[in-house]
Write a structure and sequence with these properties.
The chain is built from eight helices and no strands. The chain has helices spanning 2-26, 31-53, 58-85, 90-101, 109-146, 151-158, 162-176, 182-215. It starts with a helix and ends with a helix. The model has no long low-confidence stretch (mean pLDDT 86).
Length: 216
């Protein structure tokens, strides 16, 4: 039973990640270019299309969002206490909080949820991903930049990220029950469909880069 679950639900995304790993080792891939394409095109399309088309109710979405936010702030408190006990400086504390508070639940988790629970599960997984990604692209971006930039510049860097605007527009569309033209949804659907595989390939490429550095 466990083997069947592994083969059907967990192995497929691992194979896509393995393709990215092999691709990097065989021909070399620029992970920064892939990351930027994912960040500025594929992920906003995934977020916008998923929110607009989702059948998850506002109440259920709010419950998921509340859990994600409550968990993050709980871990924030734990992380600050641990960082103080370990006598970390500001840069070390920022890095520690980045590793503690924010999870990468998109690259691998969404595919597993889809295979395990189908479209219904994926819609709820995407709701979790949307809130988690929004926090990652705001709080995490702030923590990542405040060690090197002023608070004003750090906040400015946050608002350069496209995810915030994708979420805002999608929520406005849902709240006002606006009809998005078909040609826009068709354009969005193409990168939306490729977002999860692209993130998995990117993860495989990054793992190959890490393993190559370890080999050295």
């Amino acid at each position: 039973m466990l083997l069947k679950l592994f083969v059907n639900n967990i192995l497929p995304p691992l194979l896509v990640m393995a393709a990215g790993f092999v691709l990097e080792r065989a021909v070399g891939v620029d992970p920064r270019a892939l990351s930027r394409v994912a960040l500025y095109v594929f992920t906003p399309a995934l977020i916008f299309g998923s929110l607009v088309e989702s059948k998850v109710t506002g109440t259920e979405f709010g419950q998921i969002a509340l859990f994600v936010v409550a968990f993050m702030f709980t871990m924030w408190g734990v992380g600050l206490v641990a960082a103080r006990l370990l006598r970390f400086d500001q840069r070390q504390t920022n890095a520690f909080l980045l590793a503690t508070l924010f999870s990468n639940c998109g690259n691998y988790g969404l595919a597993v949820v889809l295979f395990a629970y189908g479209q219904v599960g994926l819609e709820r997984g995407l709701a979790y991903f949307v809130v988690s990604a929004l926090l990652t692209h705001t709080f995490a971006a702030y923590f990542a930049s405040r060690g090197a930039y002023s608070m004003r510049q750090s906040i400015r860097n946050v608002f350069r990220l496209p995810l915030i605007y994708a979420v805002t527009v999608a929520l406005v569309v849902r709240a006002l029950r606006l009809a998005v033209p078909d040609f826009i949804m068709r354009a969005v659907s193409m990168p939306q469909a490729g977002a999860i595989p692209l993130m998995q390939i990117l993860l495989g490429v990054q793992l190959a880069r890490i393993s190559r550095k370890l080999d050295l």
